[in-house]
Amino acid sequence: QVQLVESGGGSVQAGASLRLSCTASGYSHKSGCMAWSRQAPGQQREGIALINVAGGGTAYVDSVRGRFTVSRDDAKNTLYLQMNGLKPEDSAMYYCAADPAFCTFTSLFQFSYWGQGTQVTVSS
Questions:
Q1: C-alpha span between 98 and 83 (Å, rounded)
Q2: By C-alpha distance, which of 90, 104, 9 is closest to 57?
Q3: 23-65: per-residue pLDDT in tens?
Q4: What Cα–Cα distance (Å) separates residue 84 from each residue in 19, 34, 35, 73, 116?
Q5: How many other CB atoms are found less than 10 A from the CB of residue 28?
Q6: Cα 42–Cα 48–Cα 52 angle in degrees, nearest 5
Q7: pLDDT tens-place string over residues 102-117
Q8: Which stretch of 23-27, 66-70, 92-96, 118-122 has the lowest confidence by average pLDDT?
Q9: CA-based angle 118:121:123, to the nearest 5?
């Protein structure tokens, strides 16, 4: 049984950094992508970062590119999201997701596996 568990969220001031982690137990696929998405109150969930499991290639949406970095530690079966220069508009629930086949932002909602989320709140 696959389980994704996020951690590392919190409340910080604008400009601060946080590193989110997503531990993937029972997930051994060597294809597809893992992703980070976020959902603010009253807004649709949006994908913000992708990493290709096989090749390690990454992709970001414009709003986080240059500030956020997605990475994986295969030995720990853990996905990370390093977030620097946080802004109040980054406040949201952050989710990790994984799928052995899909690997685009437009296919995010078809990803098979999702975590429960970790809250990030950025105050000005």
A1: 20
A2: 104
A3: 999 888 888 999 999 999 999 999 999 999 998 899 999 999 9
A4: 9, 20, 18, 19, 23
A5: 9
A6: 145
A7: 999 999 999 999 999 9
A8: 23-27
A9: 170
Strands 68-73 and 46-52: unpaired
Q: What is the dihedral of CA 21, 26, 29, 34, to 10 degrees?
A: -20
Cα–Cα distance for residue pair 18/104, rounded to 1 Å: 25
Question: How confident is the model at residue 5, as a pLDDT?
Answer: 98
Q: Give pLDDT, residue 72.
A: 95
pLDDT recorded at residue 29: 85
What CA–CA distance (Å, rounded) separates 119 from 57? Answer: 26
Tracing tokens 């429960």 back to the chain, one arrives at 116
Proportion of the chain in helix, strand, coil states, percent, rounded to 5? 5, 50, 40
Task: Report which of 100, 85, 124 is spatially closest to residue 35, judged by C-alpha positions.
Answer: 100
Q: What average pLDDT does this structure show over 54-83?
A: 96
Cα distances (angstroms) measured from residue 16 to each of 21, 69, 76, 77: 17, 15, 26, 26
